[in-house]
Amino acid sequence: MTSSQFDPKQPVQLAPPKDDKIPRLELLQYDGVKSDLIYVGIKGTVFDVTNNIKAYGPGTSYHIFTGKDSSRGLAKSSLKPEDNSFENSYVIDDLTPSELKVLEDWFTFFSKRYNIVGKVVD
């Protein structure tokens, strides 16, 4: 896949990326339930997906990815709880090369659509 395959249908104006440190436990609040903001982390980078509540809001399929670094579930294309639990969702050291490629594709996809609001820290 080329990066142009990930370009949004409509141009998106993105703000300059922020480098704020967001503790893993604090990220839990940005799930659209505890806060109006909805964040998804990928490879330690936090994206603000609030403007896509239809996909990431409470009650949607992709809500499972919110409020944490969801690298594992995205890489595995998995909505399974065990791949998306707070304890496991960011663990990627055992992924296959093809899963890591999928994760990289997701990172590119998000990077072209959503503002970066910070980095996950422990």
Q: Short summary of the structure?
A:
Helices cover 26% and strands 15% of the residues.
How many structural domains are formed by the residues? 1
H-E order: EHEEHHHHE
Number of helices: 5
Beta-strand percentage?
5-15%
GO molecular function: heme binding
GO cellular component, one term: endoplasmic reticulum
Pfam family, one: Cyt-b5
Domain Cytochrome b5 heme-binding: 22-121
Report what the structure shows.
GO terms for molecular function: heme binding. Belongs to the cytochrome b5 family. MAPR subfamily. This is Cytochrome b5 heme-binding domain-containing protein. The chain is an alpha+beta fold and about 120 residues long. The chain has one domain (about 15-120): Cytochrome b5-like heme/steroid binding domain (Flavocytochrome B2, Chain A, domain 1, Roll). Helix content is about 25%, strand content about 15%. It contains five helices and four strands. It has helices spanning about 25, 55, 70-75, 80-85, 95-110, and strands at about 20-25, 40, 45-50, 115-120. It has a four-stranded mixed sheet with strand order 1-4-3-2. The protein is globular, with a radius of gyration of 13 Å. The model has no long low-confidence stretch (mean pLDDT about 95).
What are the main properties of this structure?
single chain; 122 residues; alpha+beta; Flavocytochrome B2, Chain A, domain 1; 4-stranded mixed sheet; 5 helices; 4 strands; globular; heme binding
